[in-house]
């Protein structure tokens, strides 16, 4: 069947999240005389935030809340700072997730997907209000739907992809999902959705049975995949 809609992961596929987090962390660290690489701290924060999502899915004790994951993981990451992080600093660090830098080619690729007439949506573990703020602040292209896992289960749980099909009113083979990370790429593939992994680090999935149909080096590769599916 013909592709009718394209969903994009947000925090890895569309945005350089570690760079944005490093930018937000820099003044917090400098105020404490820490002159090391803020990108290393940002990578730890991002890793722990992702770890929280996977643990939360496994435990299944509460509805998905990425804001809680962000706050918990940054508290963990900065737990050894002296003096401790203040409430205002914590608030600013959480708010940084609504002002991340898009990858350089993101806007032009989204505009071209829109121009070609595909439905355009996010499919993200972010909370809906944070996602709406982020895409409105940083991208000039409107989305038809901002699909969030908030209140349910985080990707790569199958329910996240089922939610996208229901909201967009498409079948599995009518949707192309653009993943930014290996777990998402594997989850969408296992669910039966054709998936493009924007694999900037030239990594590999841990289980080759769920390798996505397509891997590209940046978002421009998504347009080549769409061309091949005509």
Description of the structure:
The protein is α/β, with parallel strands linked by helices. The chain folds into two domains: 5-15 and 101-228, HAD superfamily/HAD-like (Rossmann fold, 3-Layer(aba) Sandwich), CATH 3.40.50.1000; 17-98, DNA polymerase, domain 1, CATH 1.10.150.240. It contains nine helices and six strands. It has helices spanning 17-30, 38-59, 66-77, 87-95, 106-115, 128-138, 158-168, 182-191, 220-228, and strands at residues 5-8, 119-124, 145-148, 175-179, 194-198, 214-216. The chain has a six-stranded parallel sheet with strand order 3-2-1-4-5-6, with helices on both faces. The longest helix is centred in the N-terminal third of the chain and has 22 residues, at 38-59. The radius of gyration is 18 Å and the shape is globular. It starts with a strand and ends with a helix. The mean pLDDT is 97.
Summarize the structure.
With 230 residues, the chain is of the alpha/beta class.
The biggest sheet, with number of strands, parallel, antiparallel or mixed sense and barrel status, is: 6 strands, parallel
What is the helix tally?
9
Return residue spans where pLDDT drops below 50 for at least 5 consecutive residues. none
Classify the secondary structure makeup into a structural class: alpha/beta
Coarse shape: globular
Percent range for β-strand residues: 5-15%
**So, CATH architecture of the largest domain?**
3-Layer(aba) Sandwich
Radius of gyration: 18 Å
Give the SSE layout.
Blueprint: E1 5-8, H1 17-30, H2 38-59, H3 66-77, H4 87-95, H5 106-115, E2 119-124, H6 128-138, E3 145-148, H7 158-168, E4 175-179, H8 182-191, E5 194-198, E6 214-216, H9 220-228
Parallel strand pairs: 1-2, 1-4, 2-3, 4-5, 5-6
Helix pairs in contact: 1-2, 2-3
